[in-house]
Structure formats: C-alpha cells, structure tokens
Write a structure and sequence with these properties.
232 residues, alpha+beta, 5-stranded mixed sheet, two-stranded antiparallel ribbon, 16% strand, hydrolase
Length: 232
C-alpha cells in the first residue's frame, strides 16, 4: 500500500490523491474494518462511513450508512469534488455515488467469517464494541486481532498541502442507523494547511462531542499533546 501511495509523490501528485488511494487500498483488504471486511450491525448488515478533507481549501466530502458502495472513500471524494453539500447518507449517498460512476456491490460483498464471529461474541455480551475489541480473544494489548480496525491516512505533498481521509464500518453490534465520528469533518477527519492533518478512531460519540479532529488541529493543542507525550 505504501509503495502504491508513494508513487503520487514521485509523480508530483497531490496529498488528496495519496490519501484517497491509500484508504481505497485498505478498503480492498478484508483484514480491516472498512470496505471488504467491515463489521456487522446488530441486525447482521453492514453500514459504512467515510470522509475526506483537503487542507488547502478546507473542503470536505463524506458519506454515511452506505451498504452497496464498494469504496466509500471514493464516494466521499466525489462529494468533495462534485457537490455543494458535505455529507450524504444512506440511499441518497448511494444514488449520488452511482450517478458519478462509482462501483456498487451486493451487501454480502463486505462480509467475512471473522467479522461474523465477532458479531456473535458481541451479541452474547449484549454490547456494541470497537472493531478491534470485538476481534480480540485476550486482554493482551499486543493481541494481533486488535490491529485491524478503522482505516485512515494523512499526507503532506511537495506543494505543502495537507489532506486526510478516514473509512470505517463502525462498531460491531451497533444499531442500524448509528453514525460515529468517522464521516464527520472536524471529528473523525480533519486537515488544514495552517496546522495538521488527522484521522481519528475510537468510540465515535465521545470524539465528535469533543470535536477531536478540530482540537488536534489547533497548533497549541497539538503542541500540548506532544509535550504531554514526552515529545515536546
């Protein structure tokens, strides 16, 4: 993935193109909770979200609750480039994607046996869990099953432009219709040439209530966070 995305720099490509391609490739990999391999809702379906943001213009595009768009990040990019709106949801998002020539699939395309097993464990505990927690078989923080969750990418190109993108299937055993932080500009995804580019993951409700991306986008906030982490 890194080699494919890095070609954009070698060819003088943009940060926006790089994050789009990086996340698209991750959506194609069934190990991650985005695109193929997305987690299941409580109802046994898939609902996918994605967002992309251009740090040069502060423009953003996003989709939420899509069930048939093969690559939600491409739909988000289409919203950014071809719509006056920022966020499309559900059937409206799918119609928009199809109108712009994006590939659609049957909902079972996103299913994998591993994610189905995660749903069964979550159903037994009667909780909605983060994708990587739902996958884990132990409390070991280095459990390899915990590594493959929501995907994101950030980039800085040769022109000094930043971009960010995020894509997810949400939380295992979430109620149908639930939307977290990932498709919300300023929460799960944020980029500004004046500060930083960030792609967030975690329990969405707390992230968008706290405007996680925007808080990280503050230069002072970033500086404080790095200092607290011992990198200042």
């Amino acid at each position: 993935m890194s080699l494919r995305a890095s070609r954009y720099w070698a060819q003088g490509g943009s940060a926006l193109d790089a994050v789009t391609e990086a996340v698209r490739l991750l959506e194609e990999c069934p190990l991650f909770n985005a695109g193929k391999g997305a987690v299941f809702t409580h109802q046994g379906t898939h609902e996918l979200d994605a967002c992309i943001m251009d740090g040069r213009t502060l423009g953003a595009g996003a989709v939420a609750g899509v069930t048939r768009v093969r690559n939600p990040v491409l739909a988000a990019r289409a919203v950014l480039e071809h719509s006056e709106h920022v966020l499309f949801i559900g059937e409206g998002a799918e119609q928009f994607a199809e109108a712009h020539g994006l590939e659609t699939v049957t909902p079972d395309y996103f299913s994998t046996p591993e994610r189905w097993e995660q749903l069964q464990r979550a159903l037994n505990s009667d909780t909605a869990v983060l994708d990587h927690d739902g996958a884990a078989h132990s409390d070991d923080p280095l459990d390899p099953d915990r590594k493959f969750g929501t995907v994101g990418a950030v980039a800085l190109d040769l022109e000094g432009n930043l971009a960010a993108a995020t894509s997810t299937g949400g939380m295992t055993n979430k109620q149908a219709g639930r939307v977290g932080d990932s498709p919300l500009p300023g929460a799960g995804c944020y980029a500004s040439n004046d500060s930083v580019a960030v792609s967030c993951t975690g329990t969405g409700g707390s992230l968008y209530a706290d405007a996680g991306g925007l808080r990280c986008g503050s230069a002072d906030a970033l500086r404080r966070a790095l200092t607290a982490a011992g990198h200042g």
